[in-house]
Task: inverse folding
């Protein structure tokens, strides 16, 4: 009964507010400031969404325990978009229509981010994505006046492709490479950046084959690749297919180092690939082992709280939330001012020092951060013995 | 390299053939394209995994999974298709698609949507070692096992169909269901047997695939089902030897297409071969030309 009475009272208050022309604005939320965290929390990508949420939760607890921002608590609104572009588009309009939400940490998937971005740009709310790596985002982050609304503290696919080619040449010293790519935006983007850099470095590309998501048999392509006698193979795709490719490559006697991008960074890669996962090198935005003192503290706190090892997505989300809150603290809960503040973080000197290193953005909202290399040894991810930065 | 591609294509083709016979047998008997057959193939793999994790030895787990899959196939017929036996054929076809989606999602609820590895410790270590090596061609023990299982199952299936009473009844049903019933054949019992046999073969294919590629996931039946269906059509739907031949032709076409033409168009090459055959031989490689029944 009390609930019903209260509902009635709320409705009355709202009606009153409407008749008064809403002059007071969202007075009810005066003691909290909201940020939106749109990510997949159900569906096949839900595991990734949980990682992002874990990072955001830690940052918020830390800030709110210290009294919040200007006496106000920061609250995150978690919105499930299942990594689906059409769900992301729906979620995006509910975010921009909530006047209490001042900024966004998300989306997780590039395709979802791209679907939601036009709404954010048009309505004017800044988003920092901790994980979306697609290159197209850079050209869609600006409004008509040339203001950037979408930022990311993760590197782009073309950077990863180029970086892996550099690593193959300069650190591993391998000169004949083959590329096996998933036939979609992610795989093709990685492949093209890798091949462009490989050719610039004078490497020989002895094979360039495609596969489809969900394929099981990769032996025809691998047999062809083996015929070119490569010294290394770049697998541009995700870990479920990557693990099978590694396994089948081993079975047909193609025992060369395998290169992978962030799509490989999952413990299931080793579980599915077994012994064949060994001798894989992959890019990582963040290495637990080479992190600074702040980061070590974060890693320990993460492990204590969630009883599992921290992953790079949580660290990036922790920093993305940190930047957003920093902006709110500096300029107040105002969407336009927050955007301007974030856009102003454009050099290492002005950069935000987080657990993942120094975060700052270029004119497109892209981050300029180094990459690290992990490798699989005896069924475990370990930092590669030689890094390149 | 060509020889190796042929060996790999042949292996893949035998697996398609094992699935395709299930399609073709059911079609031959009740003229239904059982789109849920790909899911039976998927369940074969997952059931084996579950039986192994209960601590059963591999051969027993495989046999139990085949029996369970046969039971699921029969249940599928009783629950979903038998009530529609007299309904327009389209109704049963749509029901089949519905059952396929249902079984896929059921598997996701039971085993999760992430790909799972086949339990390595259950397999003898030598399986992935080469069994035969001629110059640059390698055939692994796993491939040898697939050949052996496929040949034994297919020869056995042919014997069942041509030499046994129930096989004769199946053929009679394929020719004319009413006449067969008038001759005293228990139509529903023969159909049940057909579903059981076809499902067990499909499950075996799923088990072999999950062992060969060391992975299984709930949606694995979709693509395999479509390919096997194409193989059944290529060979002449309704013809069991046709399904076997169709599977092998499709597997080799796909492998050579990926290896020599263009890997992004791998599946396209396989389907192009099927379309070409159908244009020149509408009833498939070994199918008999029949006039459409009224």
Result:
């Amino acid at each position: 009964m009390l609930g019903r009475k209260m509902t009635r009272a709320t409705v009355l208050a709202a009606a009153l507010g409407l008749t008064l022309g809403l002059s007071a604005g969202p007075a009810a939320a005066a003691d909290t400031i909201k940020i939106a965290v749109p990510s997949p929390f159900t569906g096949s990508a839900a595991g990734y969404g949980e990682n992002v949420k874990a990072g955001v939760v830690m940052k918020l607890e830390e800030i709110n325990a210290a009294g919040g921002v200007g006496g106000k608590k920061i609250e995150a609104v978690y919105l499930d978009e299942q990594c689906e572009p059409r769900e992301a588009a729906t979620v995006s309009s509910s975010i921009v229509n909530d006047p209490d939400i001042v900024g966004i940490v998300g989306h997780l998937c590039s395709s979802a981010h791209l679907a939601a971005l036009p709404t954010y740009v048009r309505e004017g709310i800044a988003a920092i994505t901790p994980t979306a790596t697609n290159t197209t985002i850079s050209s869609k982050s600006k409004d008509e006046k040339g203001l950037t609304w979408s930022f990311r503290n993760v590197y782009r696919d073309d950077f990863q492709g180029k970086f892996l080619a550099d690593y193959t040449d300069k650190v591993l010293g391998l000169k004949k490479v083959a590329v096996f790519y998933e036939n979609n935006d992610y795989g093709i983007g990685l492949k093209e950046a890798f091949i462009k850099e490989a050719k610039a470095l004078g490497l020989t590309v002895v094979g360039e084959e495609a596969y489809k998501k969900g394929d099981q048999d990769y032996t025809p392509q691998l047999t062809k690749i083996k015929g070119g006698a490569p010294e290394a193979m770049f697998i541009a795709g995700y870990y479920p297919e990557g693990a099978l490719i590694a396994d089948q490559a081993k079975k047909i006697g193609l025992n060369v180092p395998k290169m992978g991008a962030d799509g490989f960074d999952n413990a299931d890669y080793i579980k599915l690939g077994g012994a064949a996962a060994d001798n894989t090198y992959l890019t990582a935005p963040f290495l637990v082992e080479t992190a600074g003192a702040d980061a070590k503290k974060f890693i320990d706190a993460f492990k204590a709280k969630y009883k599992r090892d921290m992953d790079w997505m949580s660290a990036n989300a922790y920093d993305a939330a940190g930047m957003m809150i920093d902006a709110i603290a500096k300029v107040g809960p105002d969407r336009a001012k927050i955007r301007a503040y974030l856009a102003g973080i454009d050099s290492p000197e002005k950069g935000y020092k987080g657990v993942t290193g120094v975060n700052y953005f270029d004119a497109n909202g892209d981050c300029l951060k180094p990459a690290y290399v992990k490798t699989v040894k005896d069924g475990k991810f370990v930092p590669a013995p030689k890094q390149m930065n | 390299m060509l020889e190796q591609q042929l060996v790999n294509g042949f292996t893949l083709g035998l697996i398609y053939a094992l699935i395709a016979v299930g399609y073709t047998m059911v079609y031959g008997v009740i003229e239904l394209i059982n789109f849920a057959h790909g899911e039976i193939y998927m369940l074969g793999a997952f059931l084996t995994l579950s039986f192994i994790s209960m601590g059963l030895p591999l051969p027993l787990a495989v046999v139990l999974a085949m029996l369970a899959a046969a039971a699921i196939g029969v249940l599928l017929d009783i629950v979903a298709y038998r009530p529609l036996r007299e309904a327009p054929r389209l109704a049963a076809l749509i029901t089949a698609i519905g059952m396929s989606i249902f079984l896929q999602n059921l598997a996701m609820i039971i085993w999760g949507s992430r790909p799972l590895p086949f339990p390595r410790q259950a397999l003898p270590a030598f399986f992935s070692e080469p069994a035969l090596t001629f110059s640059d061609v390698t055939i692994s023990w796993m491939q040898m096992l697939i050949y052996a299982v496929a040949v034994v199952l297919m020869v056995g299936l042919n014997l069942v169909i041509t030499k046994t009473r129930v096989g004769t009844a199946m053929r009679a049903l394929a020719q004319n269901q009413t006449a067969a019933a008038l001759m005293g054949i228990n139509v529903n019992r023969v159909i049940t047997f057909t579903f059981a046999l076809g499902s067990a073969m499909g499950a075996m294919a799923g088990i072999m695939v999950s062992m060969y590629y060391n992975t299984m996931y709930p949606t694995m039946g979709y693509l395999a089902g479509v390919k096997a269906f194409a193989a059944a059509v290529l060979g002449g739907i309704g013809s069991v030897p046709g399904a076997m031949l169709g599977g092998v032709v499709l597997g080799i076409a796909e492998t050579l297409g990926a290896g020599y033409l263009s890997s992004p168009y791998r599946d396209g090459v396989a389907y192009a071969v099927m379309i070409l055959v159908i244009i020149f031989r509408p009833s498939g490689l070994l199918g008999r030309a029949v006039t459409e029944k009224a």
